[in-house]
Specification:
Blueprint: H1 3-20, E1 46-48, E2 56-59, E3 65-66, E4 72-79, E5 85-93, E6 98-106, E7 110-113, E8 120-121, H2 129-139, E9 140-141, E10 144-145, H3 149-157
Antiparallel strand pairs: 1-2, 2-4, 3-4, 4-5, 5-6, 6-7, 6-8, 9-10
Helix pairs in contact: 2-3
């Protein structure tokens, strides 16, 4: 490998490690009750890049919201090689680098609410690549949520991984 490429890789990995550091938790923070899982359409999904996955992922743009608690919530649709479609209603807490699955949608039976959903780290394996892509490319700016749902949808359409860039 050429020396100049080694420096570029070193800088990239250093920036990635710095981005992975989580902000201290706020002891006074409380999650508001998540709104019910929204209706969604598989038409007009914003495609996500999920490398090394046999599934295709897309976010339903009309479902993106930012709660008063700072949680970015959305519906992500997973399509398998056979055409099978499943969806998840998820949330990302940018401040702590965590995600949660509130409900799963099964064709024919509708939404199934998760029993006692827990916040899980986006940095720990096996964190879903799609949630990490949503957080890094659109939902989170530094340790906070992006300024609006429209901004998140726009940034998902033109992904550029951001490392604490001001808006």
């Amino acid at each position: 490998m050429r020396p100049d490429l080694r420096w570029a890789f070193a800088l990239f990995f250093a920036a990635s490690a710095a981005h992975a550091q989580v902000a201290p938790t706020d002891p006074d923070w409380r999650e508001v009750e998540a709104p019910p899982a929204p209706t969604f359409s598989v038409e007009g999904l914003i495609a996500l890049d999920a490398p090394r996955s046999g599934l295709r992922f897309g976010v339903a743009p009309s479902t993106i919201s930012i709660g008063a608690d700072g949680i970015v919530r959305y519906v992500v649709v997973a399509t398998g090689p056979s055409g099978a479609v499943n969806a998840m209603y998820e949330g990302i807490r940018c401040r702590t680098g965590e995600y949660k699955t509130y409900a799963r949608h099964n064709p024919g039976s509708g939404w199934v609410i998760a029993k006692d959903p827990q916040w899980l780290s986006l940095q720990a394996a096996p964190a879903p690549r799609h949630a990490l892509a949503i957080a890094r490319n659109a939902a989170c700016v530094g340790h906070g949520a992006a300024p609006s749902a429209d901004r998140i949808a726009r940034d998902l359409r033109s992904p550029i991984t951001r490392f604490d860039q001001p808006q």
